[in-house]
Each structure stands twice: as structure tokens, then as C-alpha cells.
Amino acid sequence: MNTIASITLFIILICTSVEAYPKNKTFPHPPMKDYGLKDYIYLSKDLPHSENAPWRLVCQMPYNCHFQAWIQLEGTEGKVINLNSSNPLVLYLTKTEKYTTKSGDQTYEAKNWISGEGAIYTIPAGVTVKAVKYRETGYDTKFAGSFECNDNDYNILWKKGARTAYICMRDWFYDCPDRERVGFWGDGTPEMNQCFYAFDTVSHALCKELVLRPLQKGFYPGQQLEFLGEYGLWYYYLQTGDLKSISAVYASTKNFLFNTYKFGKTNQWFDWGKDIKDAAVIENCFMYIDLGTLKKIAKITGHEADTLVINFKLDSIKTNFNKSYWKDGYYKSSQVTTPDDRANAMAINSGLAESSKWDSIYNNVLTKYTNASSFFDRWVFEALCKMGKEEYALLRMANRYKTMIPASFTTLWEHYDRWWASWKNAYDDASSLNHGWNPPVIILSQIIAGVSPEGPGWSTYHVFPKEAFLTSTKVVVPTVKGDIKIDMKKTAEEYTLNIVSPLKTKAIVGIPKASFSSLKSIKVNGMTIWNGSYTGGVTGVSWNGEDAGYIKLNVTPGTWNFIATGNLTIKSPKPLPVPQPVDFVIDKRTWTATASVKDSTFLFSGAKTLVDVSAANAIDGDHWTGWRDMTKTQYPNQWFMVDMKKNQKFDKIVLDCTWAQWDNPNKYSLSVSTDGKNWGIPIATGSGEMGITTINFPTQNARFVKITQTGSDTTYNWSVYEIDLYRKQ
């Protein structure tokens, strides 16, 4: 079977599984919110508008959402209008909605919700569009959590992560809302985790559905194994205190771990990333974690008698783990020829790797391999932080998300760099641009800001910051006890933690030793309570101990100000994003675009979905639609040109091909003209950047702009999914 056929069959099977997905029949329908009709933030044409030939109106929402398009128009009877998302993946599940006009003035609203950041209305000749709007709907929960720090790259990642998690919530946790809407346990695990840090407690109902969902023997057992331990069941219990639900699934969890799950089987599915994954090590680690969780659940649900056999299974894994898999400074089974970052990270997270092995794993594996996908990297980031390598965790995160951070899309993608590492190991145009399994929300709020429950329902929680080179973090965590608010700032001499702790909680606050080269004193609400040893004297504060990482203090509910003084190292291996001058983007609604080839279409990802890639798409304001030369891969003298209809002053051009990430121009030459005939010498030359290519030059005053390909590429086509011209304010 060839590659495209394999991919197509895989997608068909996945889409079919939407119907086969075992929804929890006893669980009530989740609450949905109608946000009402809203105005788009951008229209590709000024309204009212009509044309003598069929035309398209492309409209932008402020973020990726579930929506239904609405239109007010005037026309004659019997003409057909198409309403759709600009996201072509929507066509995998949802047919283009059509409306047949009546005579005169009329309105119509789409019947089915779809998702995306833009809507496309295809309008017949002679129909006048008077107004358009959209109705946003979504799961009825609020964005109650937040994260801010002094490096905006991580702020962007947190916000995009929260938006991605939200768009993947509706009937259950979707993997994505456009192509599949499948309730995978793998996607559901991080999506559930994110709910507790991004949304209010209404979202907990969807989390409960995942916990109570009947386990399914053949539905990717590896994903269920990832869920049935610290990252799923116990995570839910600590966040909610819902012992009843945990008790209800004890028997099925025990049966799955004792009887259903079989080691060494293919197609268990532990990660998307590189196909060659060390599944033998990974499944042992997750089974060890799950059995440890099962033991804790047994003790609190009246099943203490089961702990004997659980202990036997735990001891068996621990006894054989190092003997079987520790090789030359890292863990590796016979399934792979090189060590896997995923397997070695889980060895650390599970506790099977003793701390004496951490440095070797860090140096030999975690700093050298990036097999993990944006799903499994969550556990690599966590392992690095557990080892005290939070600085490298943050650097790895920024590097792996380097193309998502600056992208115009408001959500995080299925694959890093839109690169399908499995099967075809190349750019994947069918990967979603809104996949809920991305972990920045969890890592930044729970681990970097350091706010995490220790007792059920946040009865006890800790604040153990691991801010590394960040000099400020500010986080709000919405819990079942109320909002926890943490504000950290540090200078060369002072480390400040402001904490608002809700009623009926006990907080354990840790002053991180790693932030200091020398620590002199700690004050709480203005009074010194530590100056080399604990002195006490503040009501509501008590000593919790000291370990290699933190000086720890218990605090009762209330508002607390901690100031630790000493010598702190304030330096960063990651340069802060450079603030850019505010540029004025030139309105392009009257422009026209042409190219060196005729407008064309292509079949999307081997499926039967036809995607238009006409030149006009590159100036419609939507980054999901664009121009692409489908005649062949990149070659010299290809060109793309815009006519602005009048001379304009401009000094910067941005070419965005994020949707077709790898289609950036190999080499380019940029020319301008006032008449479209006389071009003069090029004003700029260079090589394209992955996703977004920004070209700066001295201020020009011209009407026509032409980008000419001067290089070649034997693998990738050339795409311009959006072009914008700027001039300084």
C-alpha cells in the first residue's frame, strides 16, 4: 500500500471511529453556551457588496472557535450560497452548508456548527450581501485561570494552549474539533489536566465523564495505560476530591491492569512522534505508575486486601527494570537501536530511575533526542523539571514550539512544525491546527509556577516554583476551594512571593534554593522567620522542613507576602523577544493578485476534498487559505504579484505560509513598480524562513509588488497563504 493510500485509510478508520466511540450513556449531556451573534473582526470586502460573477466573502473571527455562519442578503429566488469554514479539515466531517435564496431581503443562519478562525461565503452573481455575523457556541465554562511571566513566548504558549483545550471540549474531550472529534484517552488525559488550570469548576463535569468512561479493550490500550495512574485518575482525585467516582472505577481499573493489558503487543499507541519508540520501557513505566496509583486507591476505597498482589507486581517491575533495560548510561530495550527520550523521561517520572542515573540520562538522551511529539513532550518537560533541569525544559519548550509561537493561528497544532514523523516522515497538510494534547498550560502553571495539590480537593497544596531564568511569574489557579493566586518576582538581591490562599486549605510554600547563590533571610508579612534557621513568630506560619530543593513553610488561608534576600543570579540563556515597532498594515480589500501560473486546486491529503489555491486567496485576510503553485516544486522565475490599485508607501512585507509550513521560498527577489511594466533593480533578496518570511527594506512608493523565486526545491511547492505590506506608524 502506498503512503497516500495508507494515510487515507488511517483517516477513514479514525473518522469511522467517531461513530463507534463508546460514549458514556449514563452521563448527562454537557452544558453548552450560546454566545449570541457576533461581528467578524475582518471582512475581505466592504458591505454591502455584489458582483456580476460568483465571488467569495472571507471573514475573520478573533480566535479559533465553534461557530455557525449568518448572512443577510438581497437577491432573486433559486440561487445557491455556500457557507463554510476557511479550515479545509472541516470538510472531513461536515459537508458544506448550502442555502437557496428566496426573492427579496432575507437572512439565513447555518444549522450545523463547524470550527475555525474564518468563515467563507461563496456568493452567486447578482446577490447583494448586506451583512454577515457568526454565532459562537462552546462548552459552558469560563477561562478562570491565567499565567503571565516576563518572557512573552511562554505567555503566548499558555494562552494558545488554553484556547486549544477549550475548542476541543464539547460532547466529550475531542482530539480536534474539525477532522475527527474522537474521544481518545491519550488526548483526553492532558485536556482534562488543563481544565483544572485554565477553566472554572463547570469544566470538571467533562473531566468526570472521562474518569467514568467505560474502558475499551481494543481502543488503543497504551493510551488507557497513560490515563489510569498519576496523570489521569489520581490527578482527577487530587483536583476534585471526588472519591465516589474514583471508587466507582476501581474494579474496572484493576481488571484492566491485571488482566486486559498485554505487554509487548503492537498498536498499543503511546505517542505520535517518531515511529520507532521504545514501547517496552514506556509500558513498564506507566504500568508501574498505574499500579502505584491503584494501591493508593485501594487504601482509600476499602480494598486494602488487594495491596498484597499490587505490591508483588510493583516489586516485580522494579526488580527487573534496571536488569533488563539499563545499558551504557541510559535505558533502552532491544526494540530500538538508539535511546528514546520518551522512554528515559518516563523512567525518571515513574521513579524507576534512581537519582544517581539522572545526570547520565540528561547528558546522553534528553539533551540529544527529540523523538517525542507535542503530546509526549509533556512527560519529557516534567522529567527535566524533576531532575532540576527546568532551565533546559523551558529552552526545549521554546525551541520545539518555535513555529507555533509567532504563528497567526490562535491554537496549538497536532505536530511540531506540521511534520508527520510517523509513516511518511514529512510535512502533513492533514494535521490539525487545534489539537488539545499540547501541554504548556500544565507545565507552566503546575510545574514552572509550581502550584499543585498534595491532598484531595486541594485540602493541601504546595507552591514550589521552578522559574529558572524567568524573573517574574503570575498565576491564577481556579480550584474547588477557590482561586489560588501567586505572584513571583526576583531581582539580584530579592525573591518575592505574594500568595492568596483560599479557605479550607493548607499551603506548603517553598523558597527555591536553586534561585540563590546564597540565601540570607526570609520574611513573611514583614517579619523575619528564617535567617539560617527557622525562628517563627508569625501566626499562621509553621515550619515544614528543608530539603535539597526548598526551604518549606506551612501557611493557613489568607494573603501572604514572602521576601527572601540574598544573592540571586539573574541571567538567561534565552534572549527575550525583541519588542517590534508598531507597524501600520495596509488595507488590501481592493487589491488583486496574479501569479506565473494559472489558478488551480489540489486534492487535500490524498482524500477527495478539493482545495482552492487561487492567487486571490493570499490577499483575503485568512491564513487558512492561500495561493500555491501546483505545477511542480519550486523553480527559478516563478513569481507572485499584487496590484494595490494605487501607489502606497511601505517598508516591510510579510509572507505567511504557516498552513503549508515547508513551502517558504527557497530564495527570492523582491521588486516594485508604479506601472506594472518597469521594475528596476530588486529592492531585496534573500532566503525564506519556515512559516513566516519577513522582508524589510527602505521605504518604497509603488503600486505593484512582485516576489520572484530565484532558487529551487525538489521536495516542496511554493505557497503564499497570506501577504501583508506595512509602513511604520
Task: Pick out its properties.
729 residues; alpha+beta; Jelly Rolls; Glycosyltransferase; Maltose phosphorylase, domain 3; 4 domains; 8-stranded antiparallel sheet; 7-stranded antiparallel sheet; 15 helices; 35 strands; disordered N terminus
Strand proportion, as a percent range, falls in: 25-35%
CATH architectural grouping of the largest domain: Alpha/alpha barrel
Q: What gyration radius follows from the Cα positions, in whole Å?
A: 28 Å
Question: What structural category arises from helix and sheet content?
Answer: alpha+beta
Outline the structure in words.
The structure is a single chain. By secondary structure, this protein is of the alpha+beta class. It has four domains: 33-139, Jelly Rolls; 146-448, Glycosyltransferase (Alpha/alpha barrel), CATH 1.50.10; 456-568, Maltose phosphorylase, domain 3; 583-728, Galactose-binding domain-like (Jelly Rolls, Sandwich). 25% of the residues lie in helices and 31% in strands. It contains 15 helices and 35 strands. Strands 1, 2, 3, 4, 5, 6, 7 and 8 form an eight-stranded antiparallel β-sheet that branches. A seven-stranded antiparallel β-sheet has the order 9-16-17-18-24-20-21. Strand 12 and strand 13 form a beta hairpin. Helix 8 packs antiparallel against helix 9 (279-300) and helix 9 runs antiparallel to helix 10. The chain starts with a helix and ends with a strand. Residues 1-20 have low confidence and may be disordered.
